[in-house]
Amino acid sequence: MSKDLHFEMRERELGHLISQAESGDIRALGLFAEIKKLKQLYTDAEKELLDLALNQSEEYSEKTFSEDGYLFEKRNGARRFDYKAIMEWKIADANKKEIEIKYKTAFLSYEKNIRSVDDNGELLELPIAKYSNDTLIIKKL
């Protein structure tokens, strides 16, 4: 079976299952759990294949190349710096955490109709609260 046909079959299968859940023929909760398992299976396979794919990409001298109907681009890993061992950074980070606690407390107080003030009696500014989407945690019984 060709890779394109395999992909199209998976795509149709998922579309059909979603339609069944939307129409109430199957329960969305169980389907959601199964899809999450499949996603993890594919994620694990992707991680296993990454080193092999990177090794094979070395066969191409160009950064961008195509193979098997796909366009690939080789990118070097990013360089990042870790400042946690620097005392000045540790002090600044601790100060930042204190400030975050102060203003988070002011926000939580504001939700209870209590306004917080600084040492000079000035109202504290309120941080912007951002909310994440609701989700479901799934554990196999």
Distance between the termini: 35 Å
- DSSP helical segment count: 3
Residue share in helices? 40-55%
> Structural class of the helices, strands and pairings?
mainly alpha
Order of helices and strands: HHEEH
Calculate the mean pLDDT score and round it. 94
Point out poorly predicted stretches. Answer: none
Q: Work out the count of structural domains.
A: 2
The value of Rg in angstroms is: 26 Å
The number of E-state strands comes to 2
**Largest beta-sheet characterization:** 2 strands, antiparallel
Overall outline? flat
> Strand order of the main beta sheet, please?
1-2
Q: Proportion of β residues? A: 5-15%
Please summarize what this structure is.
The chain has 141 residues and is mainly alpha-helical.
Characterise the protein shown here.
With 141 residues, the protein is mainly alpha-helical. The protein has two domains: 52 residues, no CATH class; 60 residues, no CATH class. Helix content is 54%, strand content 6%. It has three helices and two strands; from the N terminus they run ααββα. A two-stranded antiparallel sheet has the order 1-2. The longest helix is centred in the N-terminal third of the chain and has 30 residues. The model has no long low-confidence stretch (mean pLDDT 94).
